Amino acid sequence: MKTPPPVRLVLFDFDGVLARYSRHARLASLARVAGCTPARVAEVLFDSGLERAYDSGALGTATYLQRLGDGLGCRIDPATWIDARVAAMMADPAVLALVAAVASRAQIGVLTNNGALLLDAMPRIVAPLFPLLDGRVLCSGALGVRKPDRAIFDKALAHFDARAQETLFVDDLFVNVQGARVAGLHADTVVDARSMRKLLRRYGLA
């Protein structure tokens, strides 16, 4: 078996990799605040394209929250949004321990399809990885492009001053892995701590 080249940067996806995400729990949390059904929140947030527009960088945070609140008939401030996001997430301590261990061998970072508000929620969701991840989380909303577009990987490499052939990207969706591979990165899917450990060992990182 061919030995993989040295990896100097590992980029992790957030939702589905560093923490499990329950859309239902998030919708339920916002519905309680708005006094409506989770189905109504889904219509305003997802079916309308509002969330995707925010994740893509087409909307700023203030406009995004204003439109979300208008659609739900109530005020949604950053704290309310963050509380709902935190309620929807559950981190696996074994995964977080693996990521922390990688940080002693290579640079680490996060590359996620989310708007900038996630930056304020992450320290509550994956607290053991902070301050390791301070300044090392890249959101698609801030970059103006979403995975699996090649441009987002090029921007991530530029941010970390890294070379594609020395970078490993980890995601739970194969379509995003394919995008990373097109950009020249090493990339693979993981679904839990076991699969992540197996992948990291392949690159001498665990």
Give an overview of the whole structure.
The chain has 206 residues and is an alpha/beta fold. It folds into two domains: 9-20 and 91-202, HAD superfamily/HAD-like (Rossmann fold, 3-Layer(aba) Sandwich); 23-87. Helix content is 50%, strand content 14%. It has helices at 23-34, 38-47, 50-55, 61-72, 78-87, 93-102, 118-125, 140-143, 150-160, 174-182, 193-202, and strands spanning 9-12, 19-21, 89-91, 107-112, 137-139, 167-171, 186-189. The chain has a five-stranded parallel sheet with strand order 5-4-1-6-7, with helices on both faces. A two-stranded antiparallel sheet has the order 2-3. Helix 7 links the parallel strand 4 and strand 5 (137-139). It is globular and about 55 Å long. The model has no long low-confidence stretch (mean pLDDT 97).
